[in-house]
Automatic annotation (TrEMBL):
SUPFAM superfamilies from the UniProt entry: Copper amine oxidase, domain N
Occurrences of domain Copper amine oxidase-like N-terminal (ranges): 42-100
UniProt protein name: Stalk domain-containing protein
InterPro entries linked to this entry: Cu_amine_oxidase-like_N, Mao_N_sf
Organism: Paenibacillus residui
Short name of any one Pfam family annotated for the protein: Cu_amine_oxidN1
Amino acid sequence: MKTKSKRIVILTTLIFTLGTVTAFGESLWGSYEGYSKARVFINDNQINVPQDDVPAFIINGRTVLPLRLLAESLQATVSWDNKTQTAKIYKPNIHMFVSLDVDKDYTIKKPFGKVAHGETRNFVVSTQVDTLKMKPSGFKITIEAPNGELATDAVEVPLEESSESFWYTWPFKVSFTQAGNYTVNFSLLVNGEYTVVSKKTIVSE
């Protein structure tokens, strides 16, 4: 949320058995409210906690951190009902396809994941959405260059009546002037904020 009064302060205990999430505890990273801070990684990417937020910390041998940070790191949305003191996490099933073209029946033509550095290419981003349990008011598709800036204009689409599943395709033209990873982001607009729920990488080399 944009203000502290709206920020979810629920903490969740992480008890993972898979190796994709790693936490380092004890007193290596300092302390918070008398508890040892921890660092948390998801798929080798560290969850970065803002300075004014509650950090990850260790309590009774378990790693605890703000629920919103965890949900967004897992590309899920989270909502908070203050009246019922209830948080809800939604993880829709979203697939993105990058291709040179797509038929009217959504058949993907010539998908690709790499381009030549310096090439300017016209292509289509196709998005298949299902298991959409929340009711977003819209979505957005952005393409970020390796330096983090937008490689082309974002596409924002309102959703007046959303269903649990839909397809969406949109043409883009991008000049791959930088070497590295270009990231296609699909974000849902929930409660006035966009949350990235799917990513696709195009490698420029």
